[in-house]
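ligand=adenosine-5'-triphosphate
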Amino acid sequence: MSGAGAVTTARPSATGSAAAPDFPGSTPKLRLEHVRKEFIVRDAAGGRGARKRFTAVEDFTLDVRAGEFLTVVGPSGCGKSTLLDLLGGLTEPTSGRILLDGSPVTGPGLDRGVVFQQYALLPWRSARANVEFGLEAKGVGRAARARVADEYLDLVGLTAFADRYPHELSGGMKQRVAIARSLAFDPEVLLMDEPFAALDAQTRESLQDELLRIWRTTGKTIVFITHGIEESVYLGQRVAVMTPRPGRLQTVIDVDLAGAGDAGPSGDASRTDDGTADHSADDTGGDVRSSALFGRYRHEVWSALHGSPTQAQGAAAGTQEDAHV
Ligand SMILES: Nc1ncnc2c1ncn2[C@@H]1O[C@H](COP(=O)(O)OP(=O)(O)OP(=O)(O)O)[C@@H](O)[C@H]1O
Ligand SMILES: [Mg+2]
């Protein structure tokens, strides 16, 4: 492992008119270019029927490279879901551009799977039929649909609930159905809005590890929104930290946890065979989340959220920060 594990990789957010590429020489999977999103809202002070502009996202510029796992963290109401809706093509930027493989996003597509903050299941369909939804849109036949749906329901631990309707499921179960649905039709890009927030800690941790495994084996590009500082560090190769409303990009923190789960003399327990970081708990009992390196990253994200991106550099592993924004 790297030993000292210095955490000094934050960079300031892009400003100015030119959107310099984050990854020169390659087309990013997703590109946000000076994205601004305004809503027209009621203006109570302006009298009856008055309206005003409300800026939810401001001058947001960021590239996401193909196969990257990017987490986005920011305070409640800072524009995270708005940003995900924009990436999903469900709304359009007021100004700026969003590119997918170099082409402007013009609407939703089967190339992007979205897990919404609020389940968004079809209430008249069973769990299995909800998971089959995207497969139907792709023209997959009935038998194959049922097989794939059952496979993904099994993955999220809901085999016994395949025939239940959404109103017969708990909040966490509904969210797991939504996750299974987004994975089942195999989109290149997964856009996930706090997908594990409603789950108990144990289920959350096992789904986090499952998501990391899926990401490593499929090469999907994942944009994952979370309130959880620890979750952002555990999952993300980079953590994009947003400012309070209107949401701007405060900073992007590179995370490299390779070696963070080392359990002593037995060696480099948290690396996979190909040398990439394996964040999940390993066979030797290494606990990535308890490592000093993990603590330093957590502290850096915490500091960025509190408005001082450089204060973490050289600091001891933080103990005072909250786990959530
Ligand atoms: N359709 C809309 N019309 C008007 N205002 C909106 C609309 N959607 C979102 N907003 C406002 O934009 C801001 C950002 O909302 P958004 O849902 O993106 O925040 P968020 O970061 O996802 O918050 P949370 O962490 O609580 O989910 C909020 O102030 C919200 O009231
Ligand atoms: Mg939200």
